[in-house]
Amino acid sequence: MAILEIGEIRGFKAASSVMRIIPFFAGFPTATGAICPHLMKMTPILLGILFAAAISASAQGVVAPGATLQKLAGDFKFTEGPTRDKNGNVFFVDQDNNRIMEWSADGKLSTFMQPSGYANGMYFDATGNLIACCDEHNQLWSIAPDKTVTVLITNYQGKYLNGPNDVWIAPNGAMFITDPFYKRTWWDHTTMALTNQEVFYLSPDRKNLVMVTFDLKKPNGITGTPDGKYLYVSDIDARQTWRYDIQPDGSLSNKTFICALGSDGMTIDEEGNLYMCGRGVTVFDKTGKQIDHIDVQEPWTSNVCFSGKDRKTLFITASKSFYSIQLIYKGANPAK
After folding, report:
1. Where are the alpha helices (DSSP H) in the chain?
2. β-strand partners of 292
3. CA distance 149 to 144
4. How many CB atoms are closer than 10 A to CB 94?
5. Which of 180, 183, 256 lies closest to 218 in space, CA to CA?
6. Cβ atoms of 233 and 242 closer than 8 Å
7. Among 291, 277, 279, which residue's Cα sits nearest to residue 328?
8. Which residues on neighbouring strands pair with residue 168, listed in sequence order?
9. Per-residue CA distances from 22 to 16, 228, 302 (Å)
10. Which residues have a Cβ under 8 Å from the Cβ of 2 and sit 6 or more positions away?
């Protein structure tokens, strides 16, 4: 029974298999109908081997065997918003320094844009434009490879937004944006113009902005499945994360509780595991069961994205630093 419990803790099926195999071998009869004494003697050995295997599988989690957290760069003011372009370069923000950084696929750091509208969460669209939640004037920008800026969102129903924080782009080009209110030192206002802090939907033609949640406290992290069927939203102040069904018109339905944890940025891997940020990176499977935790020795871990040649490297923005760690699963979304 102890083996079964260990397997269940980390969500692996190996333990239940052990419980089925042991009784089979222990009770295997000889030609005379008696229990084979050799197999009876082997049972403790077999038990030990399978017990070790179950522990090894459960201890693996999502991190590649032998992999450790690598600090790639530091001495920033506050890092956020990592996203991957089609060439495997990772872009992230040093928000308080009002700049967007680029970590090239071959491991070189450079400044992509400064000033950057105090960009926060970012996501590359299918055409190679960098979509950025720009906090300076509560806007959403599209930044072309030549750094030409197109402002996609300036307000909602004539009122300035709270502060677009993070964005996920669906396969059809529609965008879902979280809009919490965090007072910024660079603002000339101190209050919200809107009554709620919710999630917005921007249509694929980028002409219609619609509020699609109505009962959240402070939405922050957001991600979705690469088939465009499901959206994950973290209500960070409520310490809750939810999954929604995405309807053809961009509206959301079937709000489903995932876990009792709020998150800053989020991403998802090919297995449907959800990577949530705050105190390090906490990983939940698609049922809401915690399966791993990546400790990051920084005051706050803000966001994550997958990149690397096989998209199995998780890049992490955390306080004043930028990290990576090798995983066993590939990222689900090309840009995140």
Report:
1. 2-10, 14-26, 37-60
2. 283
3. 7
4. 24
5. 180
6. yes
7. 291
8. 176
9. 10, 44, 46
10. none
- Structure tokens of 197? 């802090």
For tokens 């450079």, the residue is 110
pLDDT tens, residue by residue, 210-249? 999 999 999 999 999 999 999 999 999 999 999 999 999 9
Selected residue with higher pLDDT from 39 and 190: 190
pLDDT 10s digits, 80-107? 999 999 999 999 999 999 999 999 999 9
Residue 335 and residue 124 in contact, taking contact as beta carbons nearer than 8 Å: yes
pLDDT at 13: 36
Among candidate residues 280, 150, 335, 165, the one with its CA nearest the CA of residue 234:
165
State pLDDT tens for residues 44-58. 554 454 444 444 444
Q: Is residue 36 a contact partner of residue 30, using CB atoms and an 8 Å limit?
A: yes
Secondary structure (3-state) at 135: coil
Contacts of 256 (CB under 8 A, 6+ apart): 242, 243, 244
Residue 206, classified by CB atoms within 10 Å of its CB into exposed (0-12), middle (13-18) or buried (19+), is middle
- What is the rounded end-to-end Cα distance, in angstroms, of the chain? 40
Partners of residue 140 on adjacent β-strands = 133, 153
The SS3 assignment for 309 reads coil
Confidence (pTM) = 0.84
Q: How much is the average pLDDT of 174-191?
A: 96
Listed residue (141, 130, 101) closest to 335, CA to CA: 130
Distances (CA, A) of 214 to 179, 219, 265, 279: 12, 11, 21, 28
Tell me if 267 sits within 8 A of 220, measured CB to CB.
Answer: no
Q: What is the mean pLDDT of the chain?
A: 88
